[in-house]
Amino acid sequence: MEMPSGKRSKPNIMVTGTPGVGKSSLCEQLAEKTGFEWIKVGKFAEENDCLDEFDEEYRCPVLNEDRLIDELEETMSGGGVIVDYHGCDFFPERWFDIVFVLRTDNTKLFDRLRQRGYNGKKLEDNIQCEIFQTILEEAKESYAEEIVHELPSNSPEDMESNVERICSWVDLFVQNNA
Fold first, then answer.
1. How far apart are CA 178 and CA 175, in angstroms?
2. CB 57 within 8 A of CB 121
3. pLDDT at position 56, please?
4. Contact 9, 177 (CB under 8 A)
5. In Å, how far are 87, 136, 137 from 144, measured between CA atoms?
6. CA 9 remoteness from chain centre
């Protein structure tokens, strides 16, 4: 059955948060359980020529947001997509039915980022981003507040609970839009 224009039968989900909070681990499990397409924005950007110059200070390439949006537009229109990225304010609001912001205790996050080789300004800025709830505030300013949900991501138990909670929400969405 075809959905009326503007309605999707499967939701699009944004999973965002400071680097190191567990976005990719959560998204991998969600993609397995839901069958949705999982888009790791950094990897997608690299594969689709959506990166500009290299930022020497942060030791990473700079995302060309406009080119990325153009490349993803068609994919997002069909629904059933999980987007995994550490920022969310530049994505069109119409793309997402729900936004999950993962949050992690600063001590745990510090350890995770050190294990990834973060140090100096990059480490400090990411810890400050989490302390000041920068990504959560960005999500609340960019999307309708009722679709933005903060989830703890400190332990395997949190991960399991988050996967169950999101899968339950997906099931409800699909039932209500069938």
1. 5
2. yes
3. 86
4. yes
5. 16, 12, 12
6. 20
